[in-house]
Amino acid sequence: MQTIGEGWAFPLKRFMNEMELLECMQMRTVTDDCGKRHLLSCPITMHISENQKKALETQSSFAIRYKGEIYAVVHKPQFFPNRKEEICSRVFGCMDPAHAGAEPIMKQGPWLVSGETMHFTKRVAFNDGMDKYRMLPSEIADQIKAKGADAVYAFQVRNPLHNGHCLLLKDTRDQLIKQGYKNPILLLHPLGGWCKDDDVPLKDRMLQHQALFDDGTINPEHAILAVWPSPMYYGGPTEVLWHASSRVNCGISHFITGRDPAGVKHPNGKEDCYDVWHGQKLLVHMKQMLNGVEVLPFKVAAYNKVNQRMEFFGGPGCNKDDFEFISGSRMRAMAKSGETPPSGFMSEKGW
Amino acid sequence: MQTIGEGWAFPLKRFMNEMELLECMQMRTVTDDCGKRHLLSCPITMHISENQKKALETQSSFAIRYKGEIYAVVHKPQFFPNRKEEICSRVFGCMDPAHAGAEPIMKQGPWLVSGETMHFTKRVAFNDGMDKYRMLPSEIADQIKAKGADAVYAFQVRNPLHNGHCLLLKDTRDQLIKQGYKNPILLLHPLGGWCKDDDVPLKDRMLQHQALFDDGTINPEHAILAVWPSPMYYGGPTEVLWHASSRVNCGISHFITGRDPAGVKHPNGKEDCYDVWHGQKLLVHMKQMLNGVEVLPFKVAAYNKVNQRMEFFGGPGCNKDDFEFISGSRMRAMAKSGETPPSGFMSEKGW
């Protein structure tokens, strides 16, 4: 609801109706009132039970309430079957209902509800100390203006940032300056919605990101830190389209994408669910649908054991044996067990 | 190979390479050399075994041979994994590998092969008595011209035609004449490629269609009968996009689509795999991608037991109790057991 109401899923103005969901599932787009198609690759729907449907279908409108407060009103409700198996198959490209993104959808109610119109009556707040980071697209656009940025490169993230990320983000600014931009600004835009239980919680991630701003690992003058409200889908190449198209709505000029965006293990435990380069390849290929936003393929950085720092991996003169890849899961395991990561892996304050 | 070589899958000029397959699976399109996206919703790939890959990867080109004859040559072969589970999930929207369209794909080899270019060296012929119906898109365009048609409405079919179909096809001509066309022509375009064992074989279907042309049930002056070379995918809403986009290549102006196109039972045996109206809804919604071809939603006809003929079902004055729906499976069962269908259901010569 927050994602739609705040304008992150433009041109969507309500929970998807049947035609919007069908177009999204099949074509990765939603068509606006003028017939223009916009990239929108992930379903945004509201599921209800059989009993909820019975109660709602005699009403001309209904309210969405949370802790006693009304956040939205749906007018002239429309009901249609929640084709969960089809939605999950098409979005996740996986036949296993235990897929991390499919699992919560497979547990949903049998019906979806949308309406002719939907009105958003109250700004969403969580009162968890993180609301100051929850900026609307228009508020981010204002900050971009206030900073006098002539380029804004967005970085979607759902993990703490190690020095490899920071190297990439600094390098991106350097590259854009070489291209002739005067003041490229980073939009560090961690995902704020639902994610798997073993992902790092939002609050910890925000404290970590803020620590990097505070200790200068990331220069606060060259960056904006804000929360993006979407949940994770673990939808790989399908989801990375959503990661990029959603940020178009806050006025970015560039979007960084890396290896295996929104990736996840296949529930069979044996392999990655997605080809780790399909997300980047697809997004670069489809960039003409991003209203002029350029896609910047991510360079891979890894820990150089000899130089004791994160460095870009590959290219001429790279000695592969000097490098160690420290995955997100390994990082989380080290943090959990109180282990100290190798020197140069992450800013101390951030760790 | 025939589908690509004859131009039914324009702008595809070879078996899909990795990027073409990725775009097809995700976006239902393939991009041409000028950057224009064309609707192409079904994967057209060539799978090989591990051993075939080993043999081919040292070669600069290889030939595709059938019964000793070379039909095509692939230059600079490219290999990539045959992500069968992902392809099937995305195309069929079903988690069951026993889905009628998924089953043969799930049995394929682990690799796909494409090439920088592919040359087609010989026209495909089957020598089964049906080759005269296997017209190229350009040959159909020539026939359209010879008949002086100012509108051509294509009808995709994989079943014998009963009088309900024929009523629809005649009615379509009448409607187009009312719209101002002088000579609308039917392209009756049965699918000629692989289908399920319990579908009616091509030869029987062609004999049935020809019988309707011969006995005047379909006026041969107002119709062209040709075979379309694609296999069935049983891909429902995804496949109907392919049914329509492929026919754009032979110069049609209208495409008829009905209830549950390319539909199939879910392997769970309990339900249809697709929402029976999603195919028609999706195709009508996406018609701007058909290069000006209009989509004509199919009216449902059923057997009126009182009037002993096929009539359009529904609308004002329709007494639902007078009607009986005779499904394709029921029709096949009657034919198999030598039963005679109710009078008026199908032309006698056709039956």
What does this entry look like structurally?
Chain A is α/β, with parallel strands linked by helices and about 350 residues long. Chain A folds into 2 domains: about 1-120, Sulfate adenylyltransferase (Roll); about 130-300, Rossmann fold (3-Layer(aba) Sandwich). The first copy, chain A, has 11 helices and 14 strands. Chain A has helices at about 1-5, 20-25, 50-55, 85-90, 100-105, 135-145, 165-180, 200-215, 235-250, 280-285, 330-335, and strands at about 30, 35-40, 45-50, 60-65, 70-80, 110-120, 150-155, 185-190, 225, 255, 295, 300-305, 310, 325. In chain A, the strands form 4 sheets. The first copy, chain A, has a 5-stranded parallel beta sheet with strand order 9-8-7-10-11, sandwiched between helices. Chain A has a 4-stranded antiparallel beta sheet with strand order 3-6-5-4. In chain A, strands 13-12-14 form a 3-stranded antiparallel beta sheet. In chain A, helix 10 links the parallel strand 10 and strand 11. In chain A, helix 9 crosses helix 10 (about 280-285). Chain A is globular and about 70 Å long. The two termini of chain A are about 35 Å apart. The model of chain A has no long low-confidence stretch (mean pLDDT about 95). Chains A and B meet through helix 2, helix 4, helix 9 and helix 10 of A and helix 2, helix 4, helix 9 and helix 10 of B.
